[in-house]
Amino acid sequence: MQWLESVKWDERGLVPVIAQEASSGDVLMFAWMNREALARTAELGRAVYFSRSRGRLWYKGEESGHVQAVHEIRLDCDNDVILLKVTQQGHEPGIACHTGRHSCFFQRLEDGQWRPVDPVLKDPGSIYR
Fold first, then answer.
1. Which CATH number do you get for residue 82?
2. Domain ranges, residue 77
3. How far apart are the C-alpha atoms of 76 and 35, rounded to whole Å?
4. Distance between CA atoms of 84 and 26, rounded to whole angstroms?
5. Cβ atoms of 68 and 23 closer than 8 Å
6. CB atoms within 10 A of CB 8
7. CB atoms inside a 10 Å sphere around CB 14
8. Quick check: 68 and 84 in contact, CB under 8 A?
9. DSSP strands (E only) in the chain
10. Tell me, what's the pLDDT at 91?
11. Which of 3, 42, 95, 99 has the smallest CB count inside 10 Å?
12. How many domains would you assign to the chain?
């Protein structure tokens, strides 16, 4: 897969990835991919990340059912960041965050403090086993 050679992998063999909702443009989450994760994502049309905490591939939605269908894979101008345009599946509206929210970017800086500004759509305790 020659196209994988164009990606500038970091010293750990990873590249940062942003998942963006194709329909709304909402930034849903940030994660990492290794070569295998990116290749599997392209092959399956489904987001597959590399979990640094687990030390293995992480198929988005493997526990929660909140799968990301991938419509486009883009590479930035420096070849060191991937953008996935996705449809977040598994709940309406889609839940991308392990906190049960639509987006992982739910905190906004207000008066020198981070405040959650987006609602919890589903209790995380009922999502993860």
1. 3.10.20.810
2. 2-98
3. 16
4. 12
5. no
6. 11
7. 18
8. yes
9. 15-21, 27-33, 48-51, 56-59, 68-75, 82-88, 107-110, 113-116
10. 65
11. 3
12. 1
**pLDDT for res 129:** 62
Q: What is the pTM of this model?
A: 0.89
Residue for token pair 């059912």 = 65
Q: Residue 107 corresponds to which tokens in the numbers above?
A: 């905190």
Say how far apart CA 122 and CA 37 lie, in whole Å. Answer: 28
pLDDT tens across the length of the chain (129 residues): 899 999 999 999 999 999 999 999 999 999 999 999 999 999 999 999 999 999 999 999 888 888 999 999 999 999 999 999 999 987 677 888 889 898 999 999 999 999 999 999 988 888 776
Any domain includes 20 = yes
Which residue, chain included where needed, has tokens 């979990």?
Answer: 51
Listed residue (75, 68, 77, 78) closest to 4, CA to CA: 75
Task: Write out the two tokens for 6.
Answer: 């164009």
Instruction: Output the six-digit token pair for 16.
Output: 């940062």
